[in-house]
Write a sequence for this structure.
């Protein structure tokens, strides 16, 4: 498990990657199951610059997304964005040819929780996303 800190962090690997305060870059392992955790209590903005980014998202490798919050998955919106093409986070992430990104928002507040980079199938992202309570034991470790 890797957890971001107070600032903008880059977390790489398989297992559980937990974004925290700041705009984090979460890079999943291409060959191992990864759970990308977005925390609704630390992501307070509605703008792209404040959102956590999930790179190397691969459903076939067992990747999933967990959103820590006190609401249901029905309060999440998954939008494909074709205009989001370049992110500057310690290194440049550029959209691959023909790919888009999926923005994950909390519908009731407009809060942008995260962006799945270079994976443009919102239905697949939705099906692999769950909301977990803040009290989930996995979030208490580390």
């Amino acid at each position: 498990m890797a957890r971001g800190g107070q600032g903008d962090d880059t977390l790489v690997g398989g297992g559980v990657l937990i974004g925290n305060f700041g705009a984090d870059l979460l890079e999943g392992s291409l060959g191992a199951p990864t759970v990308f955790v977005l925390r609704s209590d630390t992501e307070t903005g509605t703008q792209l610059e404040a959102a956590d980014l999930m790179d190397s998202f691969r459903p076939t490798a067992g990747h999933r997304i967990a959103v820590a919050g006190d609401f249901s998955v029905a309060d999440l919106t998954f939008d494909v964005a074709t205009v989001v093409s370049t992110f500057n986070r310690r290194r440049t992430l550029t959209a691959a040819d023909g790919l888009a990104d999926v923005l994950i928002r909390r519908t009731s507040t407009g809060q942008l929780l995260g962006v799945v980079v270079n994976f443009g199938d919102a239905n697949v992202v939705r099906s692999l996303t769950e909301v977990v309570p803040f009290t989930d034991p996995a979030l208490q470790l580390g």
Q: What stands out?
A: Residues 86 and 92 are 7 Å apart (CA to CA).
